[in-house]
């Protein structure tokens, strides 16, 4: 009958959804943050590098206070 496919469909659905939800924990362990930044475009990569250079943590919100003042001679 048609309902005999339901256990197999449920198993496949669960197994296909495990990687989606497992990335949260894996990134939390490896990166210290559960979310990654999108690096598809060049502007996003430049902003990631800028934030990493300024604060050593690209996941912290950076404002003007994160940019060091210039030294006056």
UniProtKB/TrEMBL annotation:
This is NADH dehydrogenase [ubiquinone] 1 alpha subcomplex subunit 1. It is found in: Mitochondrion inner membrane. Belongs to the complex I NDUFA1 subunit family. Accessory subunit of the mitochondrial membrane respiratory chain NADH dehydrogenase (Complex I), that is believed not to be involved in catalysis. Complex I functions in the transfer of electrons from NADH to the respiratory chain. The immediate electron acceptor for the enzyme is believed to be ubiquinone. GO terms for cellular component: mitochondrial inner membrane. The keyword Transmembrane helix applies. It is a single-pass membrane protein. The chain crosses the membrane at residues 6-26. Its main location: mitochondrion. Keywords: Electron transport, Membrane, Mitochondrion, Mitochondrion inner membrane, Respiratory chain, Transmembrane, Transmembrane helix, Transport. Pfam families: MWFE. It comes from Drosophila madeirensis (Fruit fly). The keyword Transmembrane helix applies.
């Amino acid at each position: 009958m048609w309902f005999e496919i339901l256990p197999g469909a449920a198993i496949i659905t669960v197994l296909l959804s495990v990687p989606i939800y497992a990335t949260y924990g894996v990134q939390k362990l490896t990166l210290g943050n559960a979310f990654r930044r999108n690096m598809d475009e060049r502007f996003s990569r430049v902003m990631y590098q800028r934030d990493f250079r300024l604060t050593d943590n690209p996941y912290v919100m950076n404002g003007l206070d994160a940019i060091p003042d210039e030294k006056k001679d």
